[in-house]
Amino acid sequence: MDVKRSRSPRAPAEDDKKRAGGWRSSGVRPEMVLVGFLLTLPLLFLVFGGRWGSSSFPSSSSSSSATSSPPVVSKPVARHVDAGDRGATPQGQKPVALKNVSASTATSVSQDKLLGGLLSAAFDESSCQSRYKSNLYRKPSPFPLSPYLAQKLRKYEAYHKKCGPGTKRYRRAVKQLKAGRNADNSECKYVVWFPCNGLGNRMLTIASTFLYALLTDRVLLMHVSAEQEGLFCEPFPGSSWVLPGNFPQNNPHKLHIGAPESYANMLKSNVVRNDVDPSSVPASSLPAYVYLHVEQFQLKLSDNVFCDEDQVMLGKFNWMILKSDSYFAPALFLTPMFEAELAKMFPQKEAVFHHLGRYLFHPTNRVWGIIRRYYEAYLARVDEKIGFQIRIFPEKPIKFENMYDQLMRCVREQRLLPELGTAELPTTNATADAGNGNGKVRAVLIASLYSGYYEKIRGMYYESPTKNGEIVAVFQPSHEEQQQYTSNEHNQKALAEIYLLSYCDKITMSAWSTFGYVAYSFAGVKPWILLRPDWNRETSDVACVRSTSVEPCLHSSPILGCRAKRDVDVAAVKPYVRHCEDVGFGLKLFDS
C-alpha cells in the first residue's frame, strides 16, 4: 500500500521566549501588539491551518503509553537496517510509523474500529486497548461482514448479560444443577468450555464452542486455568465469560472419553436415546448436565453429535460441559439443522474463524504492550513483512538440516525472499536506490521454539547482498526450546507471536500447526504450508503448497453416517468442504 506521511510542525520555542522577554525592553505597548495580532490572525490561519488540520494523524513521543494511536512519520532519506535482532524492545524506544496506515486513511480506519459492526461499541477503550487498535496493524479484511452475523452477535451479547455470572438467572440455574435437576422450559442454557492442549488448540476450540453457542442459544462460559489467566480481555460487554470458581462441576479430571456423563456413553447405557421422538422426552427426565468429549480419538472426533436427532436431544439439557482439542466448526456446517442459519451468518464460508477470532480474542493490556512495542521497534518501517512459523512435533521429529532445507526450497520456488548476490559491492543502481530511500526493506519474522532458523537466515543476508539491492532484516522474538502448556509466561509470549505473525503480508507455516492456523486466519492471508514428510521418511518431495482457504483445518473429521451407521466422505458431497492440504483426511471450509 502506498503511504502518505504527514510531518508535525516545529514549535519555535526559542524565538517565542525571546519575543516574550523583549516586550518590555523594546518599548512596544502591549495593546498595540494585541491589535496587530488580531489583524493578522486570518492570514495566520490561512497559512498554517492545513498543517494542523483535524485529519492529521497524531504523532507520538518517546514517552507515549500503550493507549496512544499508531503514529505516522516521514520516511527517512536513507535507511540502514541490520540483518536483524532477536532481543527485547530497547528501553525508551521511540514508536515508529505504521507503514500500512497513512495519514489520509487514518481517520477512516479509526472510524471503522468496530470492524464494520463486528465489535460492540459498549466498551471502555482503555480497559482493553487491543480491541479497537490491533487491526490498525493489519491490512483491511478481505471478507465483508454479514449484517446478519452482526445482528446475531448483538443479540447474543444481550442474552449473555441477562444470563451470565452474577445474575439471578445464573444463580437459579446453578442451584438446579447442584440439586441434580434438569428443569423444563429453562430461560437460560449454558455450554461450559474446558481447556485441552496448547494455546492454538484452545483458541480454535473456544471459537468453535462459541459458534455452537450461537446456533443453540446457549451462554458460553470458559474455565480459565492458571496458565491462561490474563491473556484475553472479556469479549462480551457488561458481563463475563469466565466460569466462577464455585461452579459445582469444576473438576477437569472428571472430563475424559470414558466419563459416564459423556453423551456417547449415555447413549450406550440407554440413559438417553436418539431413536425416539425427542419432543416426547421431557427435559426434567434427563440428568442435570451432559458432557461432550469432542476430542480426537483414532483420528476421529469421539462423540458422534453432529446429527439432527442428537442435537435435538442435546437441546433438552440446560447445562452442557464441553472439552475439545479440535477446530470442530466445519462439522457444524455438516449438521443439516444448522446449514440455513450458518449460510446467513457466513455467506463466505472461509471467513468463519477470521470473523469469530477477531471478535473473541483481544490480548489484555499487558500482552498488547509486548505486541505493540515489538512491532513498532522492529517491523513498522519495512515495505513487506514475511512470517515463517516452524513447528517440530515430538512424535515425528525431523532433523534441523532437513527442515531448514525444505523451508529454503519453498522460499526459492515461491520467490518469497530476494535472491542473494555475490559478496562484492552492489551495483551503481542498487547503491543509488538504497541512498535515496527507494530500496525495499523486507522483514522476516520467525516464530519457532528454536533459534537455528533465525541464525541461518540472518547469516545469509548479513554476509551477502541481494541481487536487486533490497535489504532483508530478520527477527525472532523468542526461542523457548520447548512448548510449555502450563506456563502463563510462555503463553503470553505465544499469544504475542501469534499476533505479530498475523501482521505479516505473507506467511509460511508448518503443517498441522494450530498456532499457524490462528495467525493466518486472523490475517485473512492464504499461507504456504510446509508439508509434513511421510512417517517413514524425514524429507518431503514437495516443499510447500498454497492453502486454498484462510480457514483452519479440522484434523479429525466426524462420523456423519448418523442413523445409516456408515462413514461418509463429506468432501466429496459438500461443495464448500475440502480435505486439508497438510492433513489428507482433515476437513477445511473454503469458497469455490
TrEMBL record:
InterPro entries hit by this protein: XG_FTase (IPR004938)
Chief localization: Golgi
UniProt keywords, alphabetically: Cell wall biogenesis/degradation, Glycoprotein, Glycosyltransferase, Golgi apparatus, Transferase
GO terms for cellular component: Golgi cisterna membrane
Chain segments carrying region Disordered: 1-24
Compartment(s) where it occurs, according to its Swiss-Prot or TrEMBL record: Golgi apparatus, Golgi stack membrane
GO biological process annotation, one example: cell wall organization
Chain's role: May be involved in cell wall biosynthesis.
Name of this protein: Fucosyltransferase
Native species: Miscanthus lutarioriparius
Lineage: Eukaryota, Viridiplantae, Streptophyta, Embryophyta, Tracheophyta
